[in-house]
Amino acid sequence: MKIAFFQPPAPQRIGGLDAAIQGINAALTKAGVEVIENAGAETTFDLAHFHGLWQPNHARRAPRLRERGIPYVVSPHGMLEPWAWRHKRWKKWPYFQLIEKRYLARAAALLATGPGEAQRLARFAPAQRIEALPLGLTGAARPDYDAARRQLGWAPDEIVLLYLSRLHVKKGADLLLRALASSHWPVVTRLVVVGDGDRSYVDSLRTFASREANKLPRIDWIGPVWGESRWKYFQGADLFCLPTHSENFGLAVLESLQVGTPALTTVDTPWAEDLSGPRGFIIRPNVDDLRATLVRFFAQPRTPSATRREIADWAWSRFDWSQLGPRYAAFFESIARRESAAPVS
Question: Residue 131, Cα to own-chain centre: how many angstroms?
Answer without folding.
Answer: 18
